[in-house]
Amino acid sequence: MTPTLLIADDEKATRDGLRAALDEDFDVYLASNNKEALQVLKSEPIDLLLTDLRMGGDSGMDLLSEAQKLEHQPVTIMMTAYGSVDTAVEAMRRGAYHFVTKPLNLDEVEMLLKRALRSRKLEVENRELRQQIADAPGLERLAGKSPAIQRVIEVVRQVAPTKATVLIEGESGTGKEVVAHAIHRLSGRPAEKLVIVHCAALAPQILESELFGHEKGAFTGAIQRRIGRFEQADGGTLFLDEIGEIDPSIQVKLLRALSERTIERVGSNAPVKVDVRLVAATNKNLAAMVARGDFREDLYFRLNVVRIEMPPLRARAEDIVILAGAFLKEFAEENGRPVKPLSDAALARLRAYPWPGNVRELRTAIEHGVVMSNDPVIDLQHLPGSVLGDGPLPVLPAAPVTVLPEGKITLAAPREFNLHALETSAIRSALAQAGGNRTRAAELLGISRRTLQRKLKEEED
């Protein structure tokens, strides 16, 4: 569906000029004053409002305030020939998305409107996610709309109220501990403790005592009885992270604890009954470890009652914007900063990056951007070097300019370093890939449609 745009300005030339420039990408409505604009806003589902600050005796600020009261609120951009910092701040405070000054740069306006449209889409998606969360409290941190994460959410909803043991597998940073928290909060025992043990961080002898406890005098340094994590979690949930790292000797005791619901403290033969819901996680393939003899098969079957596979972030790329938006808000509040949008270039880089560290790495990258940006937006230079890619630029292959099926353009290094020739080749290849559609070609090139039209006209002249 074509997005709708209302242009409110008392100057006919401005209205007509903007419509001529934008009507190919937007369904454009026009108004010369507040009354006309409100009639349109109340009768049509307007996505974007581009309004002048002063329209005769009317104020664009008043129109902005009225637009904010509507059920279908447009994203508003204010324009004026009387720009000042105070006016811009006031417009943003009242809910405007951005502020531009006249004379207008049409390329800038077009790109800004498209960015605002993406912002609106993200708001709608976030609202839908908040409603999903309201319908199922406990899933707050499992954000995303991708089929991969939705499958995880569905399994969590299904298994959480039961007593079944859950095994969570997935790469580091995918959110396995987040899932464990969600299962606990949605279980029938959320008021009880969630006890977490990071198995890889402890030596086997220490891990055994950590899990099962020990009696006084059980070993050198055991000066008093110690209650282990199983007993601490009695009535609640025990989360064993990196379970693939535990020693075979402890695997035996863990199997008994799961089978008989009893444990024995180190240095004692007296069984202790425990009522524990066990959730385990690993970044290894336990089935492959069983096949190699590195993990007990009987313990694997006890753990693998319900298995949840956490998808890597590269398999749920449509969630990057949603997750980034949540992290932007989180770290802005944490650091006392305003919530800033990501620039188009920064957003494109986040989408293109393969995220070997998954959601954890994305979270760190957004925190870096929030802290480092003193500009109105978070741009490429505010992202960490690991995401941008440090080191020398790659040597371009001596091959024709090509647009790949996924929409990426590869440019060969010309025999002569002629930037104009290189640009012309890129434009022709993008148009060929887009089947002559100039809007799509502009997107492939990362420029506005108006800029592409200007460059094509320059070629004709």
Can I get a quick summary?
With 461 residues, the chain is α/β, with parallel strands linked by helices. The chain is 45% helix and 14% strand.
If you had to describe this structure to a student in words, what would you say it looks like?
By secondary structure, the chain is an alpha/beta fold. It folds into 4 domains: 4-128, Response regulator (Rossmann fold, 3-Layer(aba) Sandwich), CATH 3.40.50; 144-309, 3-Layer(aba) Sandwich (Rossmann fold); 313-388, Helicase, Ruva Protein, domain 3 (Orthogonal Bundle), CATH 1.10.8.60; 402-460, Arc Repressor Mutant, subunit A, CATH 1.10.10. It has 19 helices and 16 strands. It has helices at residues 12-22, 34-43, 60-67, 85-93, 106-135, 147-159, 176-185, 204-212, 229-232, 248-260, 286-292, 297-303, 320-334, 344-352, 358-372, 385-388, 419-433, 438-445, 449-460; strands spanning 4-8, 27-31, 48-52, 54-55, 58-59, 75-80, 98-101, 166-169, 194-198, 237-241, 262-264, 271-273, 277-282, 306-309, 402-403, 409-410. The strands form 5 sheets. The protein has a 5-stranded parallel sheet with strand order 2-1-3-6-7, with helices on both faces. A 5-stranded parallel sheet has the order 9-10-13-8-14. Strands 4-5 form a two-stranded antiparallel sheet. A hairpin with a 2-residue loop joins strand 4 (54-55) and strand 5 (58-59). Helix 13 (320-334) crosses helix 15. The longest helix is centred in the first third of the chain and has 30 residues, at 106-135. It is elongated, with a radius of gyration of 29 Å. The two termini are 35 Å apart. Residues 390-417 have low confidence and may be disordered.
